[in-house]
Every structure is written in C-alpha cells, then in structure tokens.
Amino acid sequence: MTRPVIGISTYQEPARWGVWDMPAALLPIGYPRLVRAAGGLAVMLPPDDTADAARETVAALDGVVIAGGADVEPARYGESPDPRTGPPARERDAWELALIEAAIDQHVPLLGICRGMQLLNVALGGTLHQHLDGHTGGPGVFGEHTVTPVRGTVYAAAVAEPAAVPAYHHQAVDRLGSGLTASAHAPDGTVEALELTDHDSLVLGVQWHPEMGDDIRIMAALVNAAARHRSVTRAGAPVP
Q: How far does Cα 96 stand from its chain's mean position?
C-alpha cells in the first residue's frame, strides 16, 4: 500500500553551504524523519504567492504539516507588535494561512506545530500572547515541560496521559479562534494543544516540537488520518 504523502511548510531564509550563499527553503530534518517514522512520505512546501497555488498544492496531498518558525505578524490578529516580538515573515504568513484555509476547506488532515498551531488559531480569528517566559531552555536550547490532555479530545485519544515534551516558544494562544477547543495545557495553564471541533477531518495544533523527540503518536495521528483521506479520495468517493 502506498504511504500517504504529507506536505510540510518550510522556512525561507538566507543560507550558506559549500561555496553558495543564497536564499533557501529550509526545514529541520526532524520533521521529515518524524513523518517517515510515523509511516508517511514527506515533501517540502516552500512559500508560493497565491491562494490558488495553495489550493492546488493541498489537493495533491494526503496531509499537511505547518512547521514551527518565526513569530506570526501581530497585524494578522489586529495588534501592534510588542518590542519582544520578532521581525515579520510576511510571505510565509500568507502562504501558510492559505495552506490552512485550503486544508480545512478540502477536508485534508492538518497538523500545526508551534508557530503552526499559533497560525491555525489566528486563521480562525483567534489571538496570541506576544510574550511569555519559561517555555524555552534559553537561546537555541529546547526546554521541557509536562503537557496534560483534556479528556474527550482528539489529542487525548492519541496521547492519553500527561507527557513531557520538548518546547521552544515565547508566544502562545490567547483567545481561541472560531470552532477551536483547547485539548492540552502546560502546568502554568498555557494552551498546549488545540483542535477544530465539528469537522470531519483531523485539524490539530500542538505548541511543542514533537520532531525533537522520540514520541511519534501525534504524527501517527496525522498520518493515519491522511491514509483514511487518501483511501476515500483515491476510491473516487466525494470527500464530505
């Protein structure tokens, strides 16, 4: 059986390798490794410039991952930037928001990781806390804390018990977007997972970085949902 194809959004950054120094589409290797470990095939989705491109891209995939990265531009949720908010990545914001919209509209399973979860919340009309302390191990070092699931949620079905997770973020969900529910929390109450309710495909966000650990359960939930989506669409039956 062909493995489901999972598209992962990428960074777009200056990079150096060999004799080259030029803009590049970048993705930490942990993302495709986690997809492969969970039984999927990983492809990279560098920023494009149109909503049509996002819709066509998502239509060719079985699942979508919105990766971590830069702070979401506060203007996207109606706020002025806090001095501690990082510089905007406007092209990436636009592309990933279009991917999220297309995935939800086309019922393609979606997983947002860190920034990806925050952007999912913003896409559905939510807001963010622009700064909080204690969710990193210091500059360039992942911290660790426990995440506790909310009973009865999709996240709790994948990870039933409190679990220690690798984390690196200084922003977090504030007001939840339309249709979203919090499905896990950190000890300080920070929303650590959220999901779209009343939707027939998986739409899940996690605030931490599962690609930096050994637990494949979150990615397996996406890959399994993607396999179900693939079986329906490849059989020629309409997706609801």
A: 10
| Positive or negative torsion for Cα 23, 27, 29, 33 | negative
The answer as to whether 239 is a domain residue is: no
**Catalytic residue of the set 96, 192, 195, 211:** 211
Catalytic residue among 114, 135, 169, 229: 114
Domain with residue 197: its CATH number is: 3.40.50.880
Q: Which domain holds residue 31?
A: 5-234
The answer to the question of residue 144 being in a domain is yes
CA-to-CA distance for 227 and 233, rounded, in angstroms?
Answer: 10
Our answer to whether residue 209 is catalytic in this structure is yes
Q: What is the pLDDT of residues 28-65, one digit of tens each?
A: 999 999 999 999 999 999 999 888 999 999 999 999 99
Decide if 169 is catalytic: no
Q: What are phi and psi of 178, to 5 degrees?
A: -60, 130
Q: Is there a domain that residue 139 lies in?
A: yes
Q: Catalytic residue among 107, 135, 169, 209, which?
A: 209
Question: How many domains, in total, are found in the chain?
Answer: 1
Confidence of residue 238 (pLDDT cuts 50, 70, 90): very low
Task: Give residue-wise pLDDT tens across range 6-17.
Answer: 999 999 899 999
Q: What does the pLDDT look like over 113-124, one tens digit per residue?
A: 999 999 999 999
pTM: 0.94
